[in-house]
Amino acid sequence: MKQVKKKYYSFINWIIPLAKDLYFRFNDDDVPALASQLAYYFILALFPFLIFLINLISFTPITSEQALNDLSKVIPNIAYDIIKKVIDQTSHANRQTFLSFSMVAALWAASNGMNAVIKSLNKAYDRHETRSLWKVRLLSIIATIAFAFTIILSFFLLILGEVIGKSIFVFLGLSNSFKTLWSCIRFMSPAAIMIIVFALLYRYMPNRRMKYSEVLAGSIFSTVGWLIISVLFSIYVNNFSNYANTYGSIGGIILLIIWLYWISIIILLGGELNAALAYNRAKRKNKTS
User: Fold this and answer.
1) Cα–Cα dist 134/39, whole Å
2) Where would you find the membrane-spanning parts of this chain (predicted)?
3) Do the Cβ atoms of 239 and 214 come closer than 8 Å?
4) For the whole prediction, is pTM greater than 0.85?
5) Relative to the CA of 89, which of 33, 201, 203, 244 has its CA 20 to 30 Å away?
6) CA distance 234 to 239
7) Tell me: the pLDDT tens digits for 217-255?
8) What number of CA atoms fall less than 13 Å from residue 228's CA on the CB side?
9) How far is Cα 154 from Cα 160, in angstroms, rounded to an integer?
10) What are phi and psi for residue 9, nearest 5 degrees?
11) 21 CB-contact burial (10 Å; exposed 0-12 / middle 13-18 / buried 19+)
């Protein structure tokens, strides 16, 4: 019992200073302002990227209606209506033209957002940017492509996962227990992929050398925070808010911006958490030496 109490007080003595440190970092490093900048570029990239994704799906057996139906399950209804309207209006245009234009537009806008992430992470670690402009831009584009790949892969796992599972089930003649296992893999894989991509993001984006173990906590925090914020926000908007009555059709855009703003805060807080833990480790190391 004494050992349990000791571990409990040790945890409290660790978590409270860490929470205070995160709070001061949140204000001192201008996280809300940088999150606004990141959300702005996200909203610029969102529609071109979704148009690209839906056009890409059109080359598969999956229809755009099925893809949009899966999308409706993870975002607020009013925001979904805006996205669906934009995609419907562009779906009759030339596929190849929209594939190339949408990808370039989304890539350029989102890479500007990644520059905001680099700036935030450098602030978190008290680092000045010494890398060349072209190197930072290239890093932003690579990070954007990795992030886009995560979304595409996660989207395809959710949409095509059921079809793939049924094919494997029939081909190998597996028992019904495989269906349950495959469902778990199908829905857990996107979270695992997100953790890996966030780990890469937090390791290579700041102007500082780090190990993967140093960025794991922030990667898990951002992934879990992203999922929780998305679910809670969707529940709130679909059941308790009246944005549609108050703002009309523009309400969907407002909700998208708010959602992307909170997602941006979560991403930046993940980096701040890694930085706070790194400085705590450095303090303990200095005390023992």
Assistant:
1) 23
2) 38-59, 98-118, 138-160, 180-203, 215-237, 249-279
3) no
4) no
5) 244
6) 8
7) 999 999 999 888 877 877 776 666 666 666 666 766 777
8) 8
9) 10
10) -65, -35
11) middle
